[in-house]
Specification:
single chain, about 260 residues, alpha+beta, 2 domains, five-stranded mixed beta sheet, 7 helices, about 15% strand
């Protein structure tokens, strides 16, 4: 149940859901964001409720990926929630690029569903005040997460889906080249905006993340390691930044 940094909290559709100890950092940041606008006790409660709301949004997003993968007879090993967000670890993904695109888009789609339903549930007459607060916050986190991940840059869900859709018509190599080039442009724009206008180190970090992921995918494609038809027990981690790590692969190289 425990690993070096995370522990299992439950199972959903037979998939273990784990929480990483780094989630404490999220709680601390959100509590701190309320300090100054309320008493410490109120800030603590509001911050912890906001943390639970963020985790709900991340959980729903990753469950969306997992359910789509299970629908296409893929294997899902675990879902992990952590400081950088969440990821669903899976293997035996379909070779059909449109099905792979559907798995990538299922996360944002699940988030949009939560964004639509949460305020309705929060407005129910019998809903406790603290739950209404959590659902409202979850809706805000969820729409932000979904919209951000639909940006067509690798390794975001939008970038992965775009590559697979293009691959369905033009082939995997061209799709990776096109997606990587687009990702480089988005990374530069995001980085410049973060430096010159938003003054956000966070955006600069995400820009660097996108650039690095696109460079890795382009290198893998050039080395002939990007063909899903030759994969053997490929393990893919779908984790949308700023909520996760890059995809991880275990691949069988060409003989």
């Amino acid at each position: 149940m425990f690993s070096s940094t995370n522990f299992q909290v439950c199972k959903v559709f037979g998939v273990p859901v784990k929480a990483d100890i780094s989630l404490i950092l999220i709680a601390g940041m959100l509590v701190h964001s309320y300090v100054g606008s309320a008493s410490f006790g109120a800030a603590l409660v509001a911050g912890l409720l906001a943390t639970a709301s963020l985790l709900l949004a991340l959980f729903v997003h990753e469950v969306g990926h997992a359910l789509a993968a299970l629908h296409f007879s893929s294997r899902v090993y675990e879902i992990t929630l952590m400081f950088f967000g969440g990821y669903a670890k899976m293997s035996d993904l379909p070779s059909d690029p449109l099905k792979r695109a559907a798995i990538s888009l299922a996360g944002p789609a699940a988030g949009l569903l939560l964004w639509f339903l949460a305020p309705i549930a929060a407005g129910l007459p019998a809903m406790p005040r603290f739950l209404a607060f959590m659902l409202g916050a979850a809706a805000h986190f969820s729409i932000a997460l979904s919209v951000f991940n639909l940006i067509p840059a690798l390794p975001l869900d939008g970038g992965l889906a775009l590559r697979d859709i293009v691959a369905n018509f033009k082939g995997r190599a061209f799709a990776t080249f096109l997606s990587a080039r687009l990702s480089f442009g988005i990374a530069v724009a995001m980085g410049l905006y973060g430096l010159l206008f938003a003054r956000s180190i966070f955006l600069v970090f995400i820009a660097f993340f996108v650039w690095s992921a696109a460079k890795t995918e382009l290198a893998r494609s050039a080395a002939g390691e990007d063909d899903p038809d030759i994969l053997d027990d490929d393990i893919v981690v779908i984790s949308p930044p700023p909520y996760g790590k890059e995809k991880e692969y275990t691949r069988k190289r060409r003989g």
